[in-house]
Amino acid sequence: MKKTIQKIGVLTSGGDAPGMNAAIRAVVRTAMFYKLEVVGIRRGYKGMLEKDFVPMQSQSVSKILALGGTILQTSRCPEFKELEFRRQALANLQEEGIDALVVIGGDGSFRGANDIWKDFGFPVVGIPATIDNDIFGTDFTIGFDTAINTAMEAIDKIRDTAHSHDMVFFVEVMGRDAGFIALNTGIATGAEVTLVPEIQNDMDSLCNYLQIGRRKNKTSGIIVVAEGGHLGSAAEVAAQVKERIPNYETRVTTLGHIQRGGSPSCNDRVLASIYGYEAVGALLDGRSGVMVGRVNAKTVFTPFDEAISKHNQIDRSWYEITKILSV
Q: Domains in the chain, ordered, with CATH?
């Protein structure tokens, strides 16, 4: 490895995701293995602007592997879109002696990282962490596995009540404009219907399908609704169904931010640890302006330009599977 870097800054930005702490731990301990100093930047780019820096040692990341959230905290920083603020951030980094960055976050975080790289040639590598799993250049992002398991466990419990009371539950899951969480949990919980943003649905077809199910004595059910879908939120979809099929007992549950919290799964801990290790290695090898990812179980590096201009796409054949298995 080319050791031209002496001090690495690490930050978490955007929405939190289970496994961020595991990634921080891997960055710190890998850097220390290579005799580098590490500085944690609290509250993301806002902390960079406000010099919210904290030196990190091996003991700084002890016992955080199983913690949800991020010990460095995170925040939005719209002012970072302005060149003058980025210049100030760069000056703060240089004053602290930081000569490379690891940015842990999603596409918004990588836009900021890409700006630093392009504006000033400052070495930076990104680690994809978002429960949405929509970042191009990797099969899985940190937090996704934990989120789908959290949603699955919640929906399993909801189904017990749905069956006991002959109700149809409309369960809204997160994912922004991506249907990965909905699609995976829909299959895993045997949902009668799964609505994702990537597939165009219409209310007539949905109601017709539910009525066919009732004729087959399916008096309860689970409808998984991804936020950002064409038919609206789970509450909006449920209201329209109730209006068209008045004899249906409907309930709405929005899982919300419970999907972003909690102890990360084994898969997320391992993935985050690999990403943290690879990010430091990439910087030492002279790589910059890239995001580390895993595709077909192999580490790959995707330029920020590509990672932020494209989106990971669901496998549409899985949507057909949800329909076939719900018959």
A: 7-143+264-309 (3.40.50.450), 146-260 (3.40.50.460)
Q: In angstroms, rounded to a whole number, what is the distance separating the alpha carbons of residues 2 and 28?
A: 18
Q: Write b or e for each residue in 159-180: b if 16 or more Cβ atoms lie within 10 A of its Cβ, otherwise e.
A: beebeeeebbbbbbbbbbebbb
What are the structure tokens assigned to 296, written together? 């077909």
| 228-266 confidence digits (pLDDT tens) | 888 999 999 999 999 998 888 899 999 999 999 999 999
C-alpha distance across the termini of the chain, in Å:
55
Positions marked active-site: 132
Contact 231, 237 (CB under 8 A): yes
Determine the residue type at 268.
Answer: D
Q: What is the pLDDT of residues 155-167, one digit of tens each?
A: 999 999 998 988 8
- Distance (Å, rounded) from C-alpha 173 to C-alpha 191? 13
Q: In what helix (H) or strand (E) does residue 268 lie, and over which residues does it extend?
A: helix 266-284
What is the band of 2 on the pLDDT scale with cuts at 50, 70, 90?
A: low
